[in-house]
Write a structure and sequence with these properties.
Length: about 350
């Protein structure tokens, strides 16, 4: 419910938005709905009406998010329930088609021989690229070139902290653990695997906390993770879910994204949670035949916003964000190897935004 200071303004904005909508002034209506939501993000009436407005714009994905958020606040809200019966099938069909298109690109990439020179080159470049971006998201100021130099020469970069150097070395060790140990092992993902990933991520920066659950309460923006006394049980529940029929029946992108989200929601470690969750996400994707997916520094705001939406009860925007990053990574790989295609390689068309289209 809006505070006394804003409730009148929210009601006025909602009323005026309806008027603008009625008279076809949709840009003004959009601004008024967004203003009302900024004042009171959990107002069920605003969420529901804005969702209906977005439906009229054929933005079913965002409309569905509004209804989902409204139902998180008030589960029995009749209008939101009714409206979501319309949008959910639209969203599910979009996801089905999108995942099918992404799978087609993955299957095409799998055809490329492992000894293909272009594939080997893009894998190497992507390795440095991943370590740079996953650290940069957490505030590391080393550039891509400096990150690569540290890994290739093991020499220090002037003007940068020891912690930043150790973050690069830790990520390198964690990536090697994924590639050389976990990828070759048959069987379920264990809690011990997640702890070993974290031990390598943080081992050179904070050896006392690396590979150990946090013993203090932490706060992540508006999200308050479980109390430290609950962490071990929450992780046991998470590990059970990781290996459940429910999780394994999901599309790999859904599985990877939700696993990432569940881990950062628990926030089991003092530090290194995001880097560990992104590695777990990639372990799941790589086991399904996808290349390791990078979330770029410039996508950090979108990444965090999608996680906030998940905290508010709707994980779909985060799944869609991970899907977008997965497709972009596949496009980069396909574009890199197109100069040396395999037999029966289809024609690829590269759009201005970098997206690759497979033309049968």
């Amino acid at each position: 419910m809006a505070s006394e200071d804003h409730s009148g303004e929210v009601a006025a904005s909602l009323h005026l938005a309806k008027e603008m909508r009625l008279h076809g002034k949709r840009d003004k209506a959009t601004k008024l709905y967004q203003h009302a939501l900024a004042l009171d993000p959990h107002n069920v009436e605003v969420l529901t009406e804005y969702g209906e407005f977005l439906e009229e714009e054929h933005n079913y994905m965002e409309a569905d998010h509004m209804y989902t958020k409204a139902l998180t606040v008030r589960p029995g809200h009749t209008q939101a329930l009714t409206n979501r019966l319309r949008t959910l099938p639209q969203v599910m069909e979009y996801e089905r088609r999108y995942f099918t298109a992404i799978d087609k690109k993955r299957d095409l990439l799998i055809q490329v021989p492992l000894n293909n020179a272009a594939l080997r080159r893009i894998k190497q470049e992507s390795y440095y690229f991943y370590i740079y971006h996953t650290n940069a998201i957490e505030g590391n100021t080393l550039s891509l070139g400096q990150t690569r130099a540290i890994l290739e020469t093991r020499m220090a970069v002037g003007g940068k902290s020891i912690v930043e150097h150790n973050e690069v070395i830790g990520m390198d060790e964690a990536m090697k653990y994924l590639n050389n140990t976990l990828m070759d092992r048959i069987g379920a993902i264990r809690i011990e695997d997640i702890m070993e990933i974290h031990r390598r991520v943080l081992g050179h920066c904070d050896p006392l906390d690396a590979g150990h659950y946090r013993r203090t309460q932490v706060y992540v923006g508006r999200h308050i993770p479980p109390h430290p006394i609950e962490v071990e049980n929450k992780m046991l529940e998470f590990n059970e879910w990781l290996n459940s029929d429910e999780a394994l029946s999901l599309h790999p992108i859904q599985f990877a994204a939700i696993a990432h989200y569940k881990l950062v929601f628990i926030h089991p470690f003092v530090d290194g949670n995001g880097r560990t969750a992104r590695l777990l996400m990639n372990l799941i994707l790589m086991q399904a035949g996808f290349p390791p997916v990078t979330i770029k520094l410039e996508e950090r705001h979108e990444y965090y916003e999608a996680l906030v939406k998940a905290n508010e009860g709707d994980v779909r925007p985060f799944v869609q964000f991970v899907a977008k990053c997965t497709e972009r990574t596949l496009d980069e790989y396909l574009y890199a190897v197109e100069e040396n295609p395999t037999k029966d390689w289809p024609h690829l068309s590269r759009l201005d935004d970098g997206k690759v289209i497979i033309i049968d």
